[in-house]
Amino acid sequence: MKDLVDIATLHQLNTQRPIKSKRNRWNVEISDFARLTHNPIRAIVEGLNIQPNPDKPLIALSIGDPTTFGNLKPSQETIDAIRKAIDDGNGNGYAPANGHQEAREAVARYVQHQGLVSPSDVILCSGCSSALDLCISVLGRPGKNILVPKPGFSIYRTLAEGFGIECRTYDLLPERDWEADLTQLEKLIDEDTCALIVTNPGNPCGSVFPRSHLEAIVDIAERHFVPIIADEIYEHFVFPGHEFCAVSSLSRKVPVLSCGGLTKRFLVPGWRMGWIIIHDRDDAFKDVRKGLVNLSVRILGSNTIVQRALPAILENTPNDFFDDLVATLHRHAELAYKSIKKIRGLNPVMPGGAMYMMVGIDIDHFPEFETDLSFVEALVHEQSVFCLPGQCFEYPNYFRLVLTVPEEMLMEAVKRLEEFCEQHYKIDNEQLLLQQNGLLTQMTQY
């Protein structure tokens, strides 16, 4: 009875309290984090008028998913490993936030080329994008800035700007096979610079930095005490004549967070398995290590079935599988480069690895198009070939094409590209005068 009286008294007191809320309608606001987060590529592509020619099947050279067309498939060993993990039934529950011990041990063995790595240095993530997200989240905060390459992968900006972190871009130089402008890079650094992102091999350029260039980048980071986030998801996609060198293997004093995963090399991007390798130097990352574990708890870890299969995937997939994949991409790169180089008005840059190629547009010779955006729109409308415009990577008057499509489809796309350019290419007055003078000279010789 006393309990009922107490409840009644409590209810009476609550009803007598003044109501602080003045709400009289729904007004659900989103967070600053959500408002500031955006995908530049999506924003640009959604603004394009993409209307393919109905008489020609669409060839999408825009999709960075190597599995899209079905010509590139994961190895049988990879499939067998995941089937066994499902049959064993030990991957149905949660794992520790940073990943199962056995899986982290397997990754530590797999990445020994980066330097001495122990399982405690490995954080398993939901894909390489998640790894990058954790790295930027643990190092950055409002008012800080990170250095990112231009042209570069747009997700860096997507992940940073939601936190109020400024992205400062350092230039990659096409005339130097997309090496970084080191002088400009160093001038961007100030007291609020919290990280330098190095993408190697590169997206969208397909660049592979030589060892000496990476050493110069590491030296700059060391002079200014700036940690490095190494996006190395394409670390084994390197063409003949080039050599991949892990940033962490060159660093004596600079702490490095290396991001990788199964996504591209093993042709399973949808399985969402990535990792961070913590390369600490002199305990500079003592708090960062704890912070990464804290952040991992937010999603309670990555896919546990794939974690259980990870040791077999990493250890049993034969080198022949990887060699054949790289050989295919290299062949496609050479075919595309040699063919596009012959097209008036286009300037391809031969990649050293990854699965992309950047192509420059001599926009002055295409007066119908003001920018790479209108060039790409017309290319889709007339020839049903879609490439991502350079502005998606903050690099106007270029476009990016992917090299993972079937060979016959790639060559058909290049053929249509040549037809499109020949139709729209215009010679400027100076060139026309030179040609006319040359013709007159020839006529006077007869």
From TrEMBL:
Keywords, comma-separated and alphabetical: Aminotransferase, Phenylalanine catabolism, Pyridoxal phosphate, Transferase, Tyrosine catabolism
Similarity comment text for this entry: Belongs to the class-I pyridoxal-phosphate-dependent aminotransferase family.
Stretches assigned to the Aminotransferase class I/classII large domain: 57-417
Pfam families in UniProt: Aminotran_1_2
Record's catalysed reaction(s): L-tyrosine + 2-oxoglutarate = 3-(4-hydroxyphenyl)pyruvate + L-glutamate
EC id: 2.6.1.5
Protein name per UniProt: Tyrosine aminotransferase
Self-association state and partner proteins as the record states: Homodimer.
UniProt entry tagged with the keyword Transferase: yes
Native source species: Anopheles atroparvus (European mosquito)
Residues modified as N6-(pyridoxal phosphate)lysine: K264
One GO molecular-function entry: L-tyrosine-2-oxoglutarate transaminase activity
Classification via InterPro entries: Aminotransferase_I/II_large, NHTrfase_class1_PyrdxlP-BS, PyrdxlP-dep_Trfase, PyrdxlP-dep_Trfase_major, PyrdxlP-dep_Trfase_small, TyrNic_aminoTrfase, Tyrosine_aminoTrfase
Gene Ontology biological-process entries: L-phenylalanine catabolic process; L-tyrosine catabolic process
Cofactors, names only: pyridoxal 5'-phosphate
